[in-house]
Amino acid sequence: MNPAIDLNKTKKIGLALSGGGVRGVAHLGVMQALTDHGIEFSHISGTSAGAVAAAFFAAGYAPKEILQIIKETKLLKLLRPSIGSAGLISILKTRFLFTKFIPHNSFQKLNIHVTVSSVNLGDGKLVYFTEGELDMAILASCCLPGIFKPIIINGHMYVDGGILNNFPVEPLVGNCDVIIGSSCNHLPVVTEIKSFRSLVDRAAMIAISSSLNTRKILCDIVIEPHDLGGYGIFDTDAADEIYNIGYEETLKTIQENEILKGIVQAHQKSPSV
């Protein structure tokens, strides 16, 4: 984080998008509010749901359009596992959707520099994809271990990047003048857990939160809607609600955060920046 940002010289704005299952739809609301206020991004990094949002946006789709695509294609429901299944599910069944909407399937042909994080299951190391087949990198980043079969890329097994880093800010450090982080995993206090699915979701959020704060400090601005705490990572019918929460939280942040307010004002005065 750089406390002495000269907004008049700011040229590169990076956006880090966390994972979070269906809660990741909030990123679309965040991105729509920021773009509505004239902000453009030079770099976007994301994992899991954040990787999906990053790729579609960098391919030229407006956040509102991405939300509509997700709803019409039932992408979220295709990514929702069937608890109790006899075996691991293949996430490759969703590959055709990326082929349809991003036919060039290339990092290099995106309009914005995108980094997708995943974990190499073989050596246990975090990997940042910036080249190669875009759809396979995204699917690897969304591949929840224990539920989906690992994605094989160049002979290596890959799974959800959120295991080691659910808020991939690091690829933006040194490459951007300002870093905006969008996190959809605020951990609320609960008094009871009523289902196995809720238990799994709660355990995942606790694990994610343990390393989140160390990465927040790398951001100049963090947008983290607290109202998302009541939604599970598989609440596929709540997409519109989650989108609106992200949008409204961003409008609030623009009004209250001096750095972001200044960036918006600078971009409105100099739209070519």
UniProtKB/TrEMBL annotation:
Gene3D superfamilies the UniProt entry points to: Cytosolic phospholipase A2 catalytic domain
Motif (GXSXG): 46-50
Keywords associated with the record: Hydrolase, Lipid degradation, Lipid metabolism
Protein's GO biological process: lipid catabolic process
Annotated motif DGA/G, positions: 160-162
Motif interval(s): GXGXXG: 19-24
Molecular function (Gene Ontology), one example: hydrolase activity
The UniProt record lists the keyword Hydrolase: yes
The keyword Lipid metabolism is assigned to this record: yes
Active-site residues per Swiss-Prot or TrEMBL entry: 48, 160
Superkingdom of the source species: Bacteria
Pfam family name, one: Patatin
Domain PNPLA: 15-173
Annotated protein name in UniProt: Patatin
Organism: Mucilaginibacter xinganensis
